[in-house]
Design goal:
The chain is mostly beta strands and about 350 residues long. It is about 5% helix and about 45% strand.
Length: about 350
């Protein structure tokens, strides 16, 4: 059941209430944007989730390249990119693929891309990649990994390389190219092939060029991730979610109104003295609500925001604490923090 947010609000002295009332009555109909953002960092437990990010090409791990729209910000297109097998770990379970924006370029906002991603092995290198799409997957059938969440990447070996295929079926910009460049690399260890439309069987081959990608390894020592897919608006419910936590575990959602102090303690408060090195309390604890992490390693807390315009602009903060005996001597893992600003739109 949603917990009324009003039950968490600190009681203000009467004179403060009168002053606020005098200030806000005239602005009762003002539009205030509700917001939610993340802050701080959590600490690992024994949950399953995203681990190390293996940047490809490997020489792009500590630097940026140039911006390029193909394929993720492009019109309907079929795209392949090969990566040198030597840039990959010998054994890993892939849980995700990450991209990064170009360091400086104007971007479009709010677009939707209709895509499919498949990966697999190839003996083709950046120097021998073919202009025919089908011939590049020459070491087995490609595996479609979107919308699937994870795959096991086979052991790497000499002569085995990694091939990514992205098929863009369309986007919300009328299927035109989108002004949202992704970081790209000029590197002899990669090459790309692209052709339109999405059903193309051959295309344009460009060696020594491609999108910078990160392969996210699966880990069993994940940091719990706190997030929300909505914002706190008066007269509505607001859900705070947690993923990557230890499955089937008790948890507490901490709620506070300060990120700088809690009583006499300054925040963030490092908890090494309790047996949880690397873990920090990020918010004051003005209230706490118990909830459960389910078998899928996720959980959530729902707050009911009163329909009260006096709350507009108020910020409250959340952090999840998961009981996890394997995490550290204190037996807890902590999430990042959430910063929720109450609005009416």
């Amino acid at each position: 059941m949603p917990r009324p947010l009003a039950s968490f609000l600190p009681r203000a002295p009467l004179f403060c209430t009168i002053l606020l009332g005098a200030t806000l009555v005239g602005a009762a109909h003002a539009q205030v944007d509700a917001t939610f953002s993340h802050f701080g960092a959590g600490c690992p437990g024994t949950g399953t989730g995203l681990g190390d990010n293996h940047v490809l090409p490997a020489n792009m791990a500590t630097r940026f390249g140039a911006g390029n729209a193909i394929p993720f910000s492009w019109s309907p297109v079929r795209f392949q990119q090969v990566f040198d097998g030597a840039d990959l770990p010998t054994v890993m379970t892939m849980a995700g693929l990450s991209l990064r924006q170009a360091p400086s370029a104007p971007i479009s906002h709010g677009y939707i891309v209709d895509l499919e991603i498949a990966v697999g092995r190839t003996t083709k290198t950046a120097a021998t990649m073919s202009t025919t799409f089908a011939s590049n997957f020459d070491s087995g059938t490609p595996i479609v990994v979107v919308p699937r969440a994870q795959i096991v990447v086979p052991d790497s070996a000499p002569g085995r390389h990694f091939l990514v295929q992205v098929t863009i079926h369309g986007n919300s910009y009328g299927n035109s190219a989108i002004g949202y460049p992704w970081d790209s690399a000029s590197s002899p260890s990669t090459a790309r092939l692209y052709g339109s439309p999405a059903t193309a069987t051959s295309g344009t081959l460009e060696r020594n060029l491609g999108v910078v990608m990160g392969l996210r390894a699966l880990t069993h020592t994940a940091v719990p991730n706190l997030y929300s897919d909505n914002t706190p608006q008066i007269g509505d419910s607001f859900r705070v979610r947690v993923k990557q936590a230890r499955a089937s575990s008790p948890a507490m959602m901490l709620l506070g109104f300060s990120t700088s102090s809690w009583g006499s303690q300054s925040l963030p408060l490092e908890l090494g003295f309790l047996g949880a090195p690397g873990c920090s309390l990020l918010t004051a604890i003005d209230a706490a609500q118990s909830f459960s992490i389910n078998t899928g390693a996720t959980g959530n807390v729902v707050y009911s925001v009163p329909n009260d315009f006096y709350l507009l602009g108020l910020h409250f903060y959340q952090q999840a604490l998961i009981l996890d005996s394997g995490a550290n001597a204190f037996g807890v893992a902590l999430s990042n923090g959430g910063n929720a600003g109450i609005g009416n739109q």
